[in-house]
Every structure is written in structure tokens, then in C-alpha cells.
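User: I'll paste a sequence; please echo it back and then give the predicted structure.

Assistant: Echoing your sequence first, then the prediction.
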Amino acid sequence: MPLYHFSIVITLFLFLSGCDQEPEPLSRQTPVGPRVRFVDATAAAGIDFVHTSGRSGRKFGIETMGSGVAFLDYDDDGYVDLYMVNSADLPGHVSATPPRNALYHNGRDGSFTEIGREVGVADTSYGMGCAVGDYDNDGDADLFISNVGPNVLYRNDGERDGRWRFTDIAPQTILKEDRDWSTGCAFVDYDLDGDLDLYVANYLHYELEQDVLGENGMLQRPRRHLAPTEYPGQRDYLYRNDGGDHFTDVTAEAGLLRTSWKERKLGSIFFDADNDGDPDLFQGNDATPNYFYRNDGDGTFTELSLLAGVAYNEAGRPEGTMGVNAADMDGDGYQDLAMTSFQWESNTLYKNLGSGSFKDESVGSGLATTSFDKLSFGINSLDADNDGDLDLYVANGHIDEDIQEFDPQAAYAQRAQLYLNDGDGHLTDVTTQAGPGFDMEMVGRGSAVADYDNDGDLDIFTLNSNQRGVLLRNDTPPTHHWLALRLEGRRSNRDGIGARVALHAGGRTQTLEARGASSYLSQNDPRLFFGLGEMKKAEHIEIFWPSGIYQELRGVAADQFIEVVEPADQQPVARRETAIAAATEKTASSASADLEGAWKMAPLSVPEALKKSASRRTFLNLSAFRAEVEADPHEASAHFALAEALRQRRDYRAAARSYRRALELNPAYAAARIGLGQMHGDRGDLGRAIEEFTEAIRLDSTLAEPHFLLGNIRVRMQQLDQSVPHYERAIALDPQYLHAYVNLSGTHSRQTDYGPAIQALQRGLEALPESADLRFRLGWVYFVQARYDESLEQLRQVVRQKPDRSDAHELIAQIYLTQEKIREAREALRQGLAADSTSATLRARLGVLLREQGALEEAILLLQRAVRENPDREEAYYNLAQAYLSRGEEERAGVLLRQFKLLQDNHQDILDHKTAIMLNPNDAQAYFNLGAVYSRIGRNEAARQAYGAVLMIDPRHVEARNNLGNIYFRRRQLARAIEQYRTILRYDSTYVRAHNNLGNALLLSGQTDRAVSAFERAVDLDPGYARPRGMLAQLYAKQGRTEEAEKQRAAYRRLTGDEEIR
């Protein structure tokens, strides 16, 4: 975790009367007392906009997202106007008047008048975001709207006959081809040719949910909105402006087109991350890794999010990124990144290190601890008190209108938050002291800042989902000075978007960029606002235009708006070399071969709980049970006991015979039905397992176990909601059923329904007060809800009961880190390792902490060992790579980051399969699926062990045996490979791939004639199988069997279309 700092500053206010002397510069201050005041000016300003989401209770995912807002000066009168994007009706919801987007004209007296339909910008689509830019360089602001479905580009046609008019030109351009769910959008001059291009992000492939409705037209069974992970992502678009209302899709040639399309894109922002003069792109993604594209200056981008450290959070996890903001929060001249996230994920602040990389300072900045229990969307930097540093506004609001029914700790409407900056980038939440405007609770989405009344301080507008929008007027006492710049490009684009402005005053430098959209699908005042504190003038202003022209202003008086026109007659200065180039131009060499080898040979990693249960397992005495059956062959319980022993040893055929014999002797034997169900579950036949458990319940309705096992089956089938009533019934029948409480709370937690999870655990502890498992889980749920004191109370009890519970020590340390108690966190981790020296988890966490503190050598040793001990520990790979980067070992870091990315991309699959194994250690299919994932990512030894586990459970699993044979074949362990393929054919002589693979292995081992026979048998079984035909063509040719060789070659060409045999 990051290092933390605290500031204690005594502030002295010196009032000089009748003196023109420039005051001493203010020291950087920690916010003390109420320094800012915002009031709700919505009604007074005449703004009556109410957003329509189409919400009707049917829980359509689309209705949760809300829309964006933009400040723009469409009529160039010096006062910013306000554009709001609306959504639309959905099935089950009909508005009294059709929802429309709205444009409010600024009356220059603090009031607004809605004119959207009058000027032609009142789009009625299901709107999402907006972007403003003068794409045709004619001197007025044009407007792009991202929609669910066709997007809109309103060209500002200026004033005619006393009226302003806009024309939607999208249908006449390539823009009409994007009909997906568009979200983030921005105008940007990515190729620096002097006109604005357009970037459009898309969210996911969505169709309205088709739930069963009751007679009232509402859902029969309450549920939360479905997670975005239920839907595939969509591609984005970069449109190059070719002039004359003509755009060209250059996404692929610019390097932005991703082939996977897994990413669910929301907030987008272009900013100059490395101060080299061209705009880079940060793309915030929901529940998938973020992207950071470096602009290479030649019309192309390179994706560097992993190397830059912004793809994942510090734990190596993707977050639900919503809104994004770029600003120099600590005054070092580089633009830092701030972004909002889902509830129980903190908002994130990445400090720009200026070397092409970023550092997660969410906790150290004070942002994390105050945002953990919020669901945030809009995020804006502004100098709210004009003291010379950038503060932060965050718009909050949940997506579920009935969230408290699922999580009592959450709320639908939430307060927005205002953070004041101490000048070094540390933020203090002053929401409760920021005036009556922050007293209200809203369902915040898009937000934008602007000085709408031209009084020198920045105001805030928040567009709320399904509520009225809110305008917060900044009524902070005007004790500080300010300066606002409006840029006009000549060689550069007319808006000056992409220009960087550095203002020097009082020994400090502030750096702002003119940019297009930011926050959540929104755009701010196009003017750049600098707070000057007590300084009455800006001593020096530097402007770095996108064209490369450098411009200076000196001695500019405070408290005014000035227009700065780019001097077109100057020559551009040389551009700075990119700061991030070296990080990507090297490839892994022999210096990293050990890491590659270790990856391939890393063993199967199973959960600690499974290891411990396996070590405690004692096998039932098979001989004794057989003797009992022989002694009394008509006793059903004897056959049942033998069946249980056989199932434990995974002899499923014999076990099934014994279960059925028990049922023949006693058809009402419910336990035998349960055993059969478990056996079918072990073998992956979940349908038959459900049938057996259901029959067991019919036979004996007092049994808790079949209800519990049905719950587990539903979890394995990803039917989490359906598992809950089964667990509840098991608990009702057996109030001391530990695992039912554990799995019930876990099911609720996986759906972030933390309120019911807590209730389940508390009920469990009432029945089982000594259960460390239940107490630990309760501590964990309290932690994710930011109830740290309650969490610590539970976890300390766990450690007293079970000193070697490494997970409890880790979570205690995590709480201390969240509270900025570094020493206590470090001590908790060391205590945990003293109690359990085998814990890779604790070793990894301590390594992460030491890396953040600069103790690289010890951190690297710990992280290296953690990776060896738990090769699936993603966090260890990520932080070990960062440590190597800090030490300048880019090749090693690159290998580790690639491995980390493989684990991340397959994280959910690995987790799901391991969960299935935890639920049922005899689940052969879960082991097989896990082996397939490991094989896919190149973890060959782990795959071998997983397939071996399958065959221990089910020796006749031919797919697992075939894959195991292939691993041996790739290792050139040919005798072992041949043995596996021949074993398959003893079980199933028609398994055609085994014949082909056997042929390959025999050929490499020098047994050509036998290889030919194997390939011939494969072709006999499947004449359409091209591979063995290709091998036969080559082998026949070598044997001089020319006619037969040509016949096989012709068949191969016909089947594959390839002239050459591969």
C-alpha cells in the first residue's frame, strides 16, 4: 500500500491595508474549518430539468447508468450555457411528455431558459454522454451525443435571422454506422493536424432482460440489477476529421481496436500524460482492466496500462471504473488520474510519476477511506476556494433503487462529496462543512464544473438519475484572487483542446490542460480557471499549444477573464521525446528465461482449506464393509456403507451398484439417494444429482443435507439466487449446520448483498459461538462495508482462537492500511508469518507493503517466494513486476506482467473451478476445467496435475487422459504419452483423436509402421479428419507409396483448402 503523510500547519492571515505590496506566498495548508460554501441555485436559475431513466421496477440494466451534462458557450457571448442529456421510456414506463435532451441558455443574470427544441438539439434517443468541440473550426461550439443506438453530431450553424440553429449531420457521415451502446466520448486532435477528431467508447452488448412478470406487471421475485459481467463488451471508435463534415474510422490503424472486446467502456479522457505535446488516452472500463494508450506522435497509439500501473488496483484487481478525471493534484507539473468506482471499491487516485508510470495513492491521498461505502460516478477537479490547488468533487448514487432491501448499509440516494487539497495532493473530505448545497442526497451521475455567473469561482452541476438536476452555486467568500483564460487556436484547433498552460505565481506553478470531455460522460467549462490565493497577479504564464507553438504572458493582473489567441506567425518548438518509449521496446531475453521456466513448471495451487481437509482425510475400511455385506447381504445399511467407502475411493461404478442394491432392499432409503446424488455431482452430471437430492427430500423431509447439497449444485450452476432457499431450509432443519451458514453468507456476499450475509453469519454465531470460520467471515463482510472497528473486534477473536489463521492476520493488516496505520499493518503481517510460516498470502502482502515503503530487496525476496508458493497469487506477480521496474529490470517486469495478465484474464474461470472443487473435492469436471485453463495459459505442470486429479476420480475420463498425453508429448516424454493414448483406446477404441495423437507419438519414437497404422485407423473412423491424412500423405511418400500419398494429399487439400501440409 502507499506511504502516508500528515501535515500540521498553523495558518497566519495577514491583512495589509492601503498597501500595493505583493503579499508573501501562502504556505500549503491542510483545510481547517469551513472555507467553502455551496448553495442549491437550481430553482433560482430557472432550471427545471428532470432526468428520465425509464425505470418501472422491471430492473432493466440500461436504466441504472444515467447521463452526462456539458457546459458550453454555444452563442459565444462569454457566458456558458448548459446542455443536459436525457434518456427515454422503457417497457413498463410511459412519460407524460416524451423525454428530450435540453439546452439551457444563460441569461447573463444568473438565470437560464430552456431552448433545446427551438435550436434543434432536443434529441429523444436513450441518451448517455456528450462532448463539445468546434470540429469544423468555424468559431462556434458543435455538440456530439452518445446514445444507446444511433449517435448524434449537432453542427452549430450559427445565428440566422436572430435564431441559432443546429443540424444533426451524423446520418450523412460514417458516424451512423455505430448503433451500439455508446458511452464516453471526446473531441481531440489526436494527430495534431489542427482539427478536432472524435473518439467514441461503447459499453456492452445489451438486450432488455426478459423476466417473468406478475399480474401487476412487476417482477415476480425481487432481484438486483444484473452485473455488467453478464454481458460482453463492445468495441470503440476513433474517427479522424478529414474536413467538410467527413470522418474516417481509423480505430484499427491507430492501434485502438482490441480484438477481444471484453472491455465495458465508460469514462474516457485524453490528456498529455508525459508532457510530450500529444494527447494520450485513458479509457476507464467497468469490471475489466482499464486501458492507457500512449500517443506515439505518428497517428498511432501503444497500449501500456500494465507497465504504467493503471490497469488494475494495487491488489491486482480490475475495478468498476465509472468516471475519470485528469489533473495535476500535487503541483508537480504532471497530470494525475482520478476515477470513481462501484460501492465497496474505493475511488482511485493515481499519481503521475513523470516517468511513464503511475502510483496508486488512493489511501495516502485520503480518497480511499472516505469513498469505500459510496457508489460514485461523476468526478471533477476544481479550485473551489481559489487557493491555488485543485480540489475534488464526486457525485454519488447507487444503481438499485431498493438496495437497502439487499444491503441495509447501502443507500440509493447519497450525498455528493467535496475534498479540499492541502497543496501536496492530500485530500480532506469537507462535505459536511461545504454549505447547504451538500446537505441533499442525490442519485448522481454526470457532473461538470463551470463559472456560470462569471463571478470568478467555479460552480457545479450534477445530472441525477431519474431526478431533477442540481446546480450548486459557489458562494465561498471572495477572499482569494483568480484568473480565467479562454484559448483560441489558429494553427491549432480553434478551441485549443490539448493545450497545456503553466501559471507561475508566488513561487508555485499550476498546470492545467484544455481538454474535451471528462468526469462521467460530461464536459466542463471550456475556460481554464486558476486560483491565485493572495497573489494579485500571475507573474508568468506559459502556453504550450498543440501545434508546437510556445507562448508566454507576463505580469497578468488577477480577477479577470482574458482571451489568449495563438500566435500563428511563430515557429513550433521541438517536441519532447516520449518518456515511455523504452519501457515497451525491449523483449524478454535469456535474463528472464528463469521466470518463463518457473511459470511452465509452477504446480497446481488449491485453496488452503482444501489442503487441510485432504490432510485430515482418513479412508474408510473397504475390506470391513465388504465383509459386512457378505455377512448379511440383505441388510440395506451394509450396502450403503460399502457404497460410501467406494465413492470416497472414487470407484463410482461399484459405488453406484451398492447404492442401487441398498435402494432395492429399502426403497425409502433417503441416505442412499443422497449418496447417488453426490456421486453424480462428483462426475459432473448435475441434472441427475438434482433428481436424486430432490427424491431424498421427498423420502425424508426432515433431512437438512440434501437441501444443503442442492444449494451447492445451484452455486456450481451460477444460479446464486436459487441456492439461497436451499441453504435457508437446511438451517431451519439443522440450526447448527455450519457449512450452510458459511455458504449462505458467501452466496449473498458474491452478489454484494452484505446485509443478508451479515444476518446469516450472526444467526450462525448464535448457534455456533465458537466457530472461527463464521467469525472470520463476519469480520470480512464488516471490512468490505468499511465498518473497521467491528471487523477488528471479530478478527481479533479469530486470532485468539486460531493463531495460525493467516487470512485473519492479512485482513487485520488490510484494515490498518486502510486507516493509514503502516506500522501496525506491518506488525500484523509479521505476527501472522510467525504463526504460519507457510502462508504465501501473508508473504505477498508483506512484500507489497515493503515495496511501497521502498524496501525493494526484502520485498522482492518475499514476493518471489510468494509466487513460488502460490503460483495463482496475481497480486504477487503484479507487485514483483513493479518492484523490478523500480530497480530498472524491465525485461523481468515485462515477463511477470504478461503472466499476471494471463492470470487476470482467466481469474473468474479459475475462481469458479476452484469454488466447485471446494464445494465438492470429488468434482472431476471441475478439475478438468481447471486443467484446461492452466493449459490455455501455458501452466503445463499445473494442467498435468489437474488432469491427474481427474483420472484419480474418474479413470475413464478420456478427454482428461488425452490432454495429459498431449502434455507428455509436448515434453517429449513419449513413452508416457503413448501409455495414455493406449489406455484411452482400451476404454474407447473409437476415440479418433487418441489414434491420431498416438500416431504422432509413435512416429517421434521411431515406430513408423505403427504410426502409419494409427493414422490409418483415425482416417477410417473419421474420413473428414484432415490431420492424419496429412501425416499419411507424407509417410506414404517416404515409403514410396506414391499413389496412396497423392490420394491423401488431395483429401487434405479438399478438407483444409491449404496446398501445403502443416
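Residues 136 and 669 are 81 Å apart (CA to CA). The chain is about 35% helix and 20% strand.
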